[in-house]
Specification:
With about 110 residues, the protein is of the alpha+beta class. It has helices at about 15-25, 70-80, 85-95, and strands at about 10, 35-40, 55-60.
């Protein structure tokens, strides 16, 4: 990450909502957003103890051509523990697996970079 000041934290009921808020705030699409899932959030039990999903995001245009490395690390971290794999991670993977990085690599949905 070349410019940490470009990153802002966003929260929502789900990772998808937090990412939507980030896209709206920066006026960019998902493919133009560099982000890390800080917490997938939790629904709690009967709504009690619920925690919001948290993402750290920045528009790629403000990062001087930063690649998908942060997103790749996040995906691989989530996939390292089968119990952590969730519908949110599956949704995240389906959205980013075909995005090209500035170095010409593609994010591999199930394997290493």
């Amino acid at each position: 990450m070349s410019s940490t000041s470009a990153y802002q934290e966003f929260t929502g009921k789900s990772v998808e909502e937090a990412l939507r808020l980030a896209r709206e705030a920066f006026g960019v699409g998902l493919d133009d957003l560099d982000f890390e899932i800080l917490s997938p959030g939790s629904r709690g039990v009967l709504g009690m103890g619920a925690e919001p999903a948290r993402v750290l995001a920045a528009p790629r245009s403000e990062l001087g051509g930063a690649s998908l490395e942060l997103a790749e690390r996040t995906v691989h971290k989530e996939l390292a523990d089968d119990s952590a794999r969730s519908a949110t991670v599956d949704s995240f993977l389906s959205e980013i697996e075909n995005l090209p990085s500035p170095r010409g690599r593609q994010v591999a949905a199930g394997g290493g970079a």
